[in-house]
Structures are given as structure tokens and as C-alpha cells.
Model the fold of this input.
Amino acid sequence: MRIFWILLKKELHSFFVSPVAYVVLALVMVLNGFAFRAALSVLESAPSEGSIVSWSFHAMWFWLSYFFIFPLLTMRLFAEEKKLGTLETLFTAPVRAWQVVGSKYLASVIVYCVLWLPSLFNFKFAHWISGGQVELPGGAMQGAYLILVVMGMFNLAVGCFASALTANQIVAAIISFTLSLMHFLLGIFIMVVGRKISDTLVDIVNYFAATEHIRIFTAGLIDSRPLIYYLSMSLLFLTFTHHVVEFRRWRP
Amino acid sequence: MIDVQELTKQYAGRTAVNNISFKVEPGEIVGFLGPNGAGKSTTMRILSGYMPATSGRVQVAGFDVFQQSIQVRQSVGYMPEMAPLYTDMKVNEYLRFRAELKGLSGHAMRRRVGEVMELTGVTDMRKRLIGNLSKGYRQRVALADALVHKPKLLILDEPTNGLDPVQIRHVRDLLRNLKSKHTVLLSTHILHEVEQTCDRVIMIHQGRLRANNTPQNLTRQLRSTTLLHLEIDGTGEVAEKLTAITGVRKTTEEKILVHPWRKFTLRVEPEHDVRDAVMELAMQQKWRIREMHRQLPTLEDVFVELSMNAGIPSDIPTHVL
Done:
């Protein structure tokens, strides 16, 4: 466990000395600003059932930021070490593969969580400046940030896996972007063809669909099924990553 | 310290290392030689626990490299070829990180990092980003990393690659000083270094073990002739008389020096030392000698001979090779 913390510290260090974390943070803040503005204008124009939280996470701007975060945060993790050859120095120190995979993954999850802190500030600020007229329902807030974190954990695990597959960061980014996008498009698919297909199929697809999860959670409904789905899928992709890393070393 | 038995490593149909066995005793400095692509780096990666062998048994410091990989890695300081390092870290940050990974902590860790920076001469660079360092300094940082946990065994893959002559001498002195505390296995292409530093040489070629002996014995076994350079003041058929000495194969007269000095090169069979006989002949013939110099084959000649499958005809003068 000591080794794990040392590796984690080093990974966080690499995130924050490179410009990547700051560029992503800046972009996410800008796009969050747009999403927030879009949500405010919806609430201004007409009375609405949804809160500012749910409208913010329904804006196109939110989904725009959602896609580029994961490739940018994870593409470096293994690909860069392979390119530099430092994977060799790393694995000739007394470290185990799970410690390496786990520390890289956890570092990316921590950075990801930091990215969403400014949006929290947006909501609090709107609430405060409007003298409480902009309501922040507790359930919606908790639900929204909970689903953001677990969806992030899933996509970051996918990104980790993509990065372990190649020594080229661009290829890693494209793989993780494609996988995240396909996952998202499941929800769009239902929106487009929802009435033409059987209800069972709609239910099955909705079980996987990110848009549907966001809709439920930002409304303040905390459903255990998506949580279990995302967490178990994260674990699955981390296991894949571990195997890829180990396999490269133990290939006969 | 190292016990390799019948080690074989295959990559997708290509055999990189073919059934090699050797041992390294504690306290030895062993040079690991061979042309590029001979399987040196592969063997060293297996020894350091980075890669598994296809077959064979490898023990390092009493631990099996496959079954007890963590213990092996704890006892080995490995410096990979090209010295890969994290370019976004500062020298002292990097060394502290590595020292912590290898089990040091707190005050002891800081002191040890200071020591190895001093040993390898990177103390002045400790606040610099590794990405901004020259090749020579990166090489030394990698060496400092290999040394930081006081490993029983150092495995260094071309540690002097890319260094300037002064730095090479520095590394050589460093390795000699380490000898009392560590066992060292190093690969290099600078054979002069090996002759000066190593107790023993292991040579591989095309994945097979070609030689395993002291540098002195290897050069002695070489089939090439030794050369004897002579400068003589003598008239007449000097060359013929010299060739008549037992053990001399051939005498050639080189360019004439300032009169009356003449220069000869004798090719002598390796098992003979004809210097006494030459001296006697000179006294008997009333020749004056102002230089007599014996040139033994170097490790470089051994290396070239073993690397060439056909071998070398024995009458090619060694300095031509």
C-alpha cells in the first residue's frame, strides 16, 4: 500500500506539472459557463419543472466537455511511459502491476473530480446572488455529482485501457473517444427511434444509456442500477488494463 | 549472485537467446559483450525481472526471477539501455521517488539520494528538469537510480554509451570503487574499458554463449599472432636471421628510419616469447637495439574474431583488424 501512495503522488505530480490538467480545467470551466448560461436562459424564459442543475447537465455544452475530458486525461497514462521506455525502469523496481494501474487510474479520477469543482461554485453563486430564488434542490445536486463521478470512473477506466494498448497517445485518445462516444450514442439512438421499437429493447438500451442516467439523477432520483453498472464496468476495464500490462511483460 | 541455466528466449518465432548458462560470483565485475542484436539486452532484461524467459532457470541473489520477482527486483539495480527517465521531473525529485519505490524513506532516503548524486556527479544538476539535461547527465542520473537502494547486484546496459572520454573515465573509477560492495554485470562496446575494469568477460553472439573467461585468458587463447616491433642498427640479412629464430613466422622490414636504424616487425606464434632469443642474436651479431616492443592481441581482436563466424586467418596483423 505504501508503494501505491508513492506512485499516486508521482502521477498527480505529472498531471499538475504538465499543461494538460490546466488546459482541460480551463476548457471545462468555459464550457460549464456556457452550459450554466443556457440553463439560466431556459429558467428565465418560462416556468419549468426542472431545476437549474438538471438544465445545466442537459445542455449541449455539457456533453461537449464530457467527450474530450476522458481522452485528454487518460491518453498519457501508459502510452507516454511506453514511448519514453520508462515502463521498463518502473517495472524493474519492486512494484506490482495492480499498484501501477491503480495509482494511474486513481490519479486520473482525482483530477477529474477537481474539474467539476468550479461548476459547484457556479450553482452556489447563482443561489447566493439571487437571494435563494435560483433553487438548488439537494437531491438533484447529490444525484448530479454522484452520477458525474461514477460515469467519469467508467470512462476513465476505458481511457486507461486504451492507453495501455498503444505507445501512441493520439491512438489512445482516439480509442477512448470512440468508446465513450458509442456509449453516449446509445441514448441518442433511443431518442431518435424510441417509438418504433419494442419497449423491452428501449428498456435494455436505457439501462446502458448515459443520457438517460443523467436525466434521472439530475432530477434527484438516485437509482442503484446505473451505479452498479458503472462501477462494475470500471472494474472490468481496469482488470483488462491490468491484463494488458501484465501480458506485455509475461508474453512467452 | 547470478545463476543462469539453459536460458532461452524467443520472440514471435525468432530466438534472441539460445540456451546459455553462466554464473557470476559475489563481488565480481563481469563484462557482457557481443555485437548489436546478440541478445545482451534481452538477457539483462530477464535477469532484472522485466521479462520472462521462454525456458531455462534464472536465479539472482538466491531468488528465482519468475517466482520471486519482487525480491529479485529489490536486490537488483538495473539501468536500461538509453537510460529512460521521466522528463517532467527534477533530478532530486526523480531520485527521491525511485528511492521511495525501492523501500527507502524519510531521513535515510534523503541522505542516500544526496550520496548517490555526489557519487555520480549530478549534485549541481539536482534542481534541473531531467528533460533539459544532456545525454551524459541523464546517463548518470540513471546510474544514480540503479545505485540508490544499495543493491547487491548492479545490471548496467551500456552505462558509458553517449558519454565523453572524461565521463567514461569517471564511470570506470566509480565501478571500480563499487566493487567492494556490489556485484556488477555490465554490457558495453568499449572493449578497452572492459580490459581495465572487468574480472571476467562473457561474450555472446547470435544468442549463443561464445566465451566466458578472464580478459587475459581470452586474449591468450586467440589464434592471432603476437607482434614484436624492433628497431635495429645492423647491416646485411637481418630479416632472414630473425626469421630463423624458433617461433617467428615471418619478418617484414618497415620503412627505413634515419640511417643506420632499421625497423622490423616480427609475427610470432602466440605460445612463444622470442625476446630473449632476439637479444642473444643481436649480441652475437653486434647489432644495436634501441627499441623492442611486444604487441599482444587485444580484447577487441578476440571480439572481432568471435563475432565473425568464419574466424580470422592467423597471419593477418592484429592492428589491421
Observations:
- The radius of gyration of chain B is 25 Å.
